[in-house]
Design brief:
This protein has 395 residues and is mostly beta strands. It is 6% helix and 57% strand. It has a 19-stranded mixed sheet.
Length: 395
């Protein structure tokens, strides 16, 4: 009987989590009280951090195991009240299977003046790190595997992450320095910045700006009202904002751009371009084809040859349209000004036939039609009120 009980007890010990021994000290810090908890855990493939409040920092390095330090500050009137608040915030750390856990749960009433900081050093070669905090910032760096991060409203900063990134915050800013795989970021309203990502990028904010310095695959970027800027991206780019400006650099694929009212600028694209704004100007440089439309702004487009060539449309309700065409570009052109009183079409190409209709007393329309270098994809250019110019580009 005793032998069987011993075996059952041993089996239970095997399934229980391996808790870590913790060192705790409470000390005065200025006019307030602070608590520091520190401990060590054995190395594990994964790390899960789940805390009710506090900022979390996870740093990868060459150490074999996991070391953590938790600092809490209470702003109560007395040491006794501060200790009660410390006791209400239970911190536990243990290893279960191949995952190390650091958990902090608030068991008292609503904390009014209480802060927390979790500093965790881990081996760099972890497979997965997942961090959740209801109210604090998250900083993670030097992890070779995947990182998931979620904050109720703090900022998120990730640096030197080898695996995929999936991060979300209720409203803070987000920054990714270097990422070795796909990046997915969501914030309720803060700004987003990605310096370098080798995988696909998905970034969404309720109203802040979005900036991408370098992406080696495609990017889908969305903001409720902020600006969007991309310096370079090797794949397709889709950028959408409720009202800010969009500035894209060198894009290695196709481009979709949509803004409720801001201006649009594109340095170059290897694929077809779609650009639409409710009222800003549009500038497209070095594109093989484009569908561009603005409610009330000018359009400037520079067309070049390339594999992304197709029919194009440039249209504005009120604004001038300037088209640059590279030498030897085969293209068919149809252009018109609907209300041409005081406006005209100018061309560097004698192949374009420009005609005017309407008398002195009624509305006058101007149109142009022709084919360059044997013709090719059709370019339609239309403005209700504005000038249209076709210019010969140097390259």
């Amino acid at each position: 009987m005793l032998n069987r009980l011993f075996k059952v007890g041993a089996a239970l010990l095997l399934v229980l989590p391996l808790a870590a021994a913790q060192d705790t000290r409470v000390y005065r810090e200025g006019s307030n009280w602070a608590r520091e908890i520190s401990g060590n855990l054995a190395a594990a493939k994964n790390l899960r951090v789940k805390v009710d409040l506090g900022a979390v920092r996870v740093q990868g390095g060459s150490q074999p195991g996991i070391h953590y330090t938790v600092r809490n500050r209470a702003y109560a009137a007395s040491e006794e009240k501060s200790r009660r608040e410390f006791d209400a915030y239970k911190v536990s750390a243990y290893v279960r299977g191949d995952t190390a856990w650091i958990v902090a749960e608030w068991e008292g009433g609503s904390p009014h003046k209480f802060s927390g900081e979790f500093s965790i050093d881990v081996p760099r070669d972890m497979d997965w790190v997942k961090i959740e905090t209801d109210g604090g910032g998250i900083t993670t760096s030097s992890i070779s595997g995947r990182v998931d991060a979620e904050s109720g409203g703090g900022s998120v900063r990730l640096e030197d992450i080898g695996g995929a990134i999936n991060a979300e915050t209720g409203g803070g800013s987000m920054e990714v320095s270097t990422a070795g795989s796909d990046v997915t970021l969501r914030t309720g309203g803060g700004s987003i910045r990605i310096d370098s990502a080798k995988g696909k990028i998905n970034a969404e904010t309720g109203g802040g700006s979005v900036t991408v310095v370098s992406g080696l695959q495609g990017a889908v970027l969305e903001t409720g009202g902020g600006s969007i800027e991309v310096e370079r991206c090797a794949g397709n780019v889709k950028a959408s904002t409720g009202g800010g400006g969009i500035d894209l650099g060198d894009i290695g694929g196709g481009v979709e751009i949509d803004t409720g009212g801001g201006s649009i600028r594109l340095s170059s694209a290897k694929g077809p371009v779609r650009a639409e704004t409710g009222g800003g100007s549009i500038e497209l440089n070095s594109v093989p084809s484009a569908h561009a439309e603005t409610g009330a702004g000018g359009i400037q487009a520079h067309f070049v040859g390339g594999t992304g060539r197709a029919d194009s449309v440039l249209e504005t309700s009120a604004g001038d349209i300037i088209v640059f065409l590279t030498p030897n570009l085969g293209i068919s052109i149809r252009a018109s000004i609907e209300v041409a009183n005081g406006h005209t079409i100018r061309s560097d190409f004698p192949e374009l036939k420009i005609t005017t209709e309407g008398g002195d007393w009624g509305p006058k329309t101007v149109s142009a039609e022709g084919s360059l270098n044997g013709g090719g994809p059709v370019l339609k250019v239309r403005t209700t009120m504005g000038d249209i110019s076709f210019r010969r580009a140097s390259h």
